[in-house]
């Protein structure tokens, strides 16, 4: 039951979706069933001419389905709307206004707006919607005038009250359900597009802020975050730390094991970095084999974070393409200082990283 509810919620939110081909098949099959019921009612009430016509129209919708694989959507939709307009007119002309077949014209307006606004098969959606709706209402008005002149129909047949009630009820139900159905489809399509657009925006944002290899944030994003932390420090006195770390002898890894293995080393280092940080800490791939981390806390906290990562990297074993690779990293640490720009802080951390490289690597340098 919960799975069914989840599926229904997915449809409401536009997460679950059926393509145009599926929806057209459902719509055409529904029209076929609706006209088959009309055929039964006509034959039961001894209206054979209309009964045969309803049978033909039911078959027509099955033939139109053959155009779906060819994606002739405009032809299908136009054919169906015109058929409904004709079907609404013939019984109204023959039987009179008491059976209310003109209700069906109202249902086509909802269909027109749905297909024009949602499916993108017309260049000028608003104009197409207006013109088709105007045509439907003009026919409705013409039938109303005709009914005033011939209230009993063209052949002035006597339609029994129970026939009037049956046809009026069925026509009303078909028109009401069709209108609500097309409005729901329009809402569903719009929800799906909104959901798709939101997902696309998330993907584009990820592409703009993430390194494609490691999944870490990129340098541009980190510049923004450090500027934010510097602003908070200037305004609220929040201290933060900068760590720049670099894989030792990474060129040797690429030369000895190949660039694919080098990429595997970078990915594994990124995983260690992400797993070692707290929620408010931020790490990015700064460039090549170099990473930058912004830590909420003073120099002592930042140094502890760097030392923890250094130990984890030293203990890490990377298995790649049949090779077992061990690496180390060197770290430069700097604490935020009033009056120092983000660029200056990064420069200080980078100088300490370089000092660590010169003094034997695999270490954390804080001074």
**Average predicted local confidence, pLDDT:** 87
Strand order of the biggest β-sheet:
2-3-1-6-7
- The total strand number stands at 7
What is Rg? 36 Å
Look at the helices and sheets and give the structural class.
alpha+beta
Cα-to-Cα separation, first versus last residue: 62 Å
* Shape annotation: elongated
How much strand content do the residues show?
5-15%
**H/E element sequence:** HHHHHHHHEHHEEHEEEHE
Outline the biggest β-sheet: 5 strands, mixed
Low-confidence stretches: none
Structural description of this entry:
With 367 residues, this protein is an alpha+beta fold. It is 66% helix and 10% strand. The strands form 2 sheets. The protein has a 5-stranded mixed beta sheet, with helices on both faces. Strands 4-5 form a two-stranded antiparallel ribbon. Helix 12 (342-358) links the parallel strand 6 (329-335) and strand 7. The mean pLDDT is 87.
């Amino acid at each position: 039951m919960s799975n069914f509810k989840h599926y229904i919620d997915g449809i409401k939110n536009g997460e679950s979706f059926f393509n145009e081909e599926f929806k057209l098949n459902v719509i055409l099959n529904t029209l076929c069933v609706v006209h088959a019921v009309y055929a039964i009612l006509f034959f039961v009430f001894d209206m054979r001419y209309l009964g045969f016509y309803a049978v033909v129209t039911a078959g027509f919708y099955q033939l139109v389905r053959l155009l779906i694989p060819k994606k002739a959507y405009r032809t299908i939709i136009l054919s169906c709307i015109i058929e409904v307009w004709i079907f609404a007119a013939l019984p109204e002309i023959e039987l009179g206004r008491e059976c209310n077949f003109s209700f069906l014209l109202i249902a086509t307006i909802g269909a027109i707006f749905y297909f024009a606004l949602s499916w993108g098969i017309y260049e000028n959606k608003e104009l197409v919607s207006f013109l088709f709706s105007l045509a439907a209402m003009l026919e409705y008005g013409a039938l109303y005038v005709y009914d005033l002149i011939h209230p009993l129909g063209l052949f002035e047949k006597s339609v029994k009250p129970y026939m009037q009630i049956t046809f009026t009820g069925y026509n009303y139900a078909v028109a009401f359900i069709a209108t609500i159905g097309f409005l729901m489809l329009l809402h569903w399509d719009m929800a799906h597009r909104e959901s798709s657009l939101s997902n696309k925006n998330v993907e584009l944002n990820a592409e703009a802020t993430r390194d494609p290899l490691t999944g870490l944030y990129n340098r541009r994003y980190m510049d923004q975050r450090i500027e934010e932390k510097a602003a908070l420090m200037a305004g609220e006195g929040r201290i933060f730390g900068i760590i720049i770390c670099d894989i030792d002898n990474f060129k040797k890894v690429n030369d000895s094991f190949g660039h694919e293995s080098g990429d595997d080393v970078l990915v594994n280092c990124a995983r260690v970095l992400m797993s070692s940080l707290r929620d408010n800490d931020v790490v990015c791939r700064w460039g090549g084999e170099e990473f930058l981390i912004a830590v909420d806390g003073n120099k002592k906290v930042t140094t502890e974070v760097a030392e923890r990562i250094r130990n984890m990297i030293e203990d890490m074993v990377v298995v790649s393409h049949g090779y077992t690779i061990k690496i180390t990293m060197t770290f430069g640490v700097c604490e935020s200082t009033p009056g120092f720009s983000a660029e200056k802080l990064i420069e200080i951390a980078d100088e300490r990283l370089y000092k660590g490289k010169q003094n034997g690597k695999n270490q954390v340098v804080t001074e």
